[in-house]
Amino acid sequence: MNGEQNITSEHIKNNEAVREILIKRNIKPEELPAEEDIKKIERRLKSDDKKLLKNINK
To answer: pTM for the complete prediction?
Structure first.
């Protein structure tokens, strides 16, 4: 697949197909709860690791 127009068109078709499948399964994407931000999770895990290491060294 070459060219921005072709890629954009394929991307839109794929998104529409995924949405159609979800709706057939009674899943409405706009009604799904938002997930926690991945960066926030990474920071929390890093912090937890530091706390564990600190407790181990005591």
So the answer is: 0.54
Whole-number Å distance between alpha carbons of 14 and 8: 10
Query: How many Cα atoms occupy the beta-carbon half-sphere of 5 within 13 Å?
Result: 0
Which of 38, 22, 11 is closest to 3 using CA atoms?
11
The whole-angstrom separation of Cα 24 and Cα 16 is 12
What's the mean pLDDT in 7-24? 96
Question: Cβ(17)–Cβ(27) under 8 Å?
Answer: no
